[in-house]
Write a structure and sequence with these properties.
Low-confidence stretches: 1-6, 210-215, 377-381
Order of helices and strands: HHHEEEHEEHEEHEEHHEEHEEE
Helix content: 40-55%
Shape: elongated
Number of helices: 9
CATH architecture of the domain at 46-212: 2-Layer Sandwich
CATH topology of the domain at 46-212: Nucleotidyltransferase, domain 5
CATH class of the domain at 46-212: Alpha Beta
Number of strands: 14
Oligomer: single chain
Radius of gyration: 47 Å
Strand order of the largest sheet: 3-2-1-4-8-9
């Protein structure tokens, strides 16, 4: 039993609905088995009469049978002898009227179009919408130009939907030939060989029309359904309530865990940013910045000297900063002494030989120097 309960917890809503449907059908069958067969047919409406009409270029066939398919009577007349009143006369012989029978028009099978659609079991509650959308998207037919119906067969983890459709024009032509109004026709059915052969696929024309089920049928079905629902409710209410509470707790725990993870992630990001800021501040305090070096260089170099390149390499505290500069000067050799005497630079030296530039009429130079880590203050003083 614990295994069954744990498996029920993993059922989807569609699977649970299908299980309830199978239970309802079983309950109804067991309920009806308590009555004699004829009374059971009367209770379920399966004893209602079906009037089958078919025609060809020569004859019109009128057949009366029960909904379960039991043959009762039939007549066959030529097309010139047929009229709509013949149907009323035929039904009157059996003490029936048109409102007491289901009228089915039998048409050639080649006027029907069948296709199969496989859906997941979770789509059980949306089959109507899916079938209508599938017909408009994957067939050349418009819903306003056809009558259609479908049958659903449940398989392992899937629903097999068999669609059947017919053009409205075909139904109108058949109704006109039989001198009937389309509104009087309940179903159109595909011919399937001889009269006694199994019926072909049928399409209900007016899905909102009542099936002429009498009040005892409704009462019996309501009683059986109510009994099934009460039995399920009485046996599963407490379990369902506990599962609902557990599901709510699981949801709340998952939400709290997610929020805690988000807070932890935010703290980690803030700590990472603070660590970067602290690193930058430490480097700032341990050595001069690029602006300090730029400011000191422009202050120390004489007015007859200008630079074409200035670069700084190295990173404190693991290694010294080094500044490299190149440019033109009226007295390039003196620049080494100028930099060495400054509080910011030390170990200044030329890196290339001094050469006179014929265009600028000044000496071209390139030199480098180390930066004093403790000399960033008081440079311009």
């Amino acid at each position: 039993m614990p295994v069954q309960i744990s498996s029920l917890r993993n059922l989807s809503l569609a699977q649970l609905t299908a299980m309830l449907g199978r239970f309802g059908r079983w309950w109804t069958e067991e309920f009806l088995s308590l009555f004699p067969p004829r009374l059971a047919e009367w209770l379920t409406g399966s004893g209602s009469m079906v009037l089958l009409l078919s025609h060809d270029d020569t004859f019109v066939n009128i057949r009366l049978q029960t909904r379960s398919g039991a043959y009762l009577d039939n007549i066959r007349v030529s097309r010139p002898e047929y009229s709509a009143t013949l149907i009323d006369d035929f039904l009157e012989r059996h003490q029936l009227g048109r409102q007491e029978v289901t009228i089915r028009i039998v048409l050639p099978a080649d006027q029907f179009f069948k296709r199969t659609l496989v859906l997941p079991i979770q789509a059980a509650r949306s089959v109507n919408e899916i079938v209508a959308h599938d017909l408009t998207q994957k067939t050349p037919f418009k819903l306003t130009a056809i009558y259609y119906d479908y049958e659903v067969i449940e398989g392992p983890g899937k629903l097999v939907v068999t669609q059947c459709l017919i053009k409205r024009d075909s139904v109108k032509a058949a109704a006109l030939a039989l001198q009937l109004d389309v509104a009087d026709i309940d179903f159109v059915q595909a011919a399937n060989g001889s009269v006694n052969a199994s019926p072909g696929p049928a399409i209900r024309l007016d899905k909102g029309r009542s099936h002429r089920t009498t009040w005892p049928v409704r009462a019996a079905l309501a009683l059986s359904t109510s009994a099934a629902l009460l039995a399920l409710t009485a046996g599963g209410l407490r379990y369902w309530r506990q599962e609902t509470i557990l599901d709510e707790l699981r949801t709340e725990i998952a939400t709290e865990r997610r929020q805690a993870e988000e807070v932890r992630s935010s703290f980690a990001k803030i700590e990472h940013r603070h660590s970067g800021i602290r690193h930058i501040l430490a480097e700032k305090l341990q050595g001069p910045g690029l602006l300090d070096i730029w400011d000191a260089t422009t202050y120390l170099l004489p007015a007859d000297t200008w630079l074409t390149e200035l670069s700084v390499t190295g990173a404190a505290p693991s290694q010294d900063y080094r500044v490299a500069m190149s440019g033109f000067s009226a007295a390039a050799a003196k620049l080494v002494g100028v930099l060495d005497q400054s509080p910011l630079f030390r170990d200044a030296a030329l890196t290339t030989a001094i050469a006179l530039d014929p265009t600028e009429q000044r000496e071209r130079f390139a030199l480098q120097a180390k930066v004093r880590l403790d000399g960033s203050r008081g440079v311009n003083q």
